[in-house]
Amino acid sequence: MVPKYAILIIDGAAGWPLVDRGNKTSLELACTPNLDAISREGHLGLTNNVPPGMEPSSAIACMSLLGYNPEIYYRGRAAIEAISMGVGIDSDEAIFRCNLVAIKAGSMWSYCAGHISDTEARELIGALNAYLGSDEVCFYPGVGYRHLLKIKGHPEVERAICIPPHDIPGKPITNFLPQGDGSNFLRKLMKDAEAILHDHHVNLERIARGAIPATAIWLFWGSGAIPHTPPFKEKYGLSAALTSGVDLLRGLGLMMGMTILDIPGVTDNLDNDFAAQAQGALAALEQHDLTVIHIEAPDEAGHSGKADEKITAIEKADALVVSRLRRERNLRLLVLPDHPTPIPIQTHAAEPVPFLMWGPGFATNGGQRFTESEARRTGISIANGYNILEEFVR
Q: What angle do the packed helices 118-132 and 201-208 form, to 10 degrees?
């Protein structure tokens, strides 16, 4: 019988030992009986999904683990999210990620404006468009705090040096504002947005109930249009479907010609319906050869520095997703984070992560648990993560 394939991306699940938790990582602290069981049965090792010299972003790491070399195909994250959102990019346009953030006393208070809701964020983005939108500038609402800004007729902005807000938690923003060519245009937009957001009723209501307000926008990950990417089926001979709660992964899937699954309840955080996501992904295998399940919650917890939430997210993925996948005896499963999101630094790290291949054709290599240390102990290492797909579907 021809096997089916599933890739489970537990975003940001890897990390560093926590001094106050017995020097154990979140993966080591989590109770993961299902991952541990298939680790004893499958092929465990380490993979480096971020090529040397490239930023350890989910865009680069996930592009890599899905079998595409980021050094060839990556041109910027915002453009990938634009694909998911149906936002076109002409040759004289640039696109930027536009986070709603909270700045307090000159420092980055919250990279996500306290995980502002979709409804609230859409109203704020609408207000920004009403006051700042023009033939040159247009804001596009996304998911939660994640939005896009398109700029027309200012090619210099693509050369601006921009730092993601989740890289600077609690730090003064002065030294991390856009720098270099095009930065003045971006800085002015960010400054003008502050006045619009300051007195908006959405923020006043958030303050009144003790929630973090969206005090500013933060522009980064700028890019132009992205190059052509060969379809996944053409490259690997398999039809594929993908489920995720974020536009980045949906955009990557569309770039690769995958079917994007619309599963009710799939979100970017702990309120994600893990069970529905697993069931929907498995159902997609009736029409597809391979399904990709992307779980964002551990990464969000890592960025927020919340160890308990990160551990809970990993445990939910194990109990509600892996438990269902391991019941499928004709399924070949690849489980891995894209990158580490260590709690101590609250951002991504460019380090190898554990991977596990399980199912027909994969023999045990002595692993006991799905952890960084166990993966390292096997001695198996994939230097270039964009090669892992070929080994998985061989």
A: 140
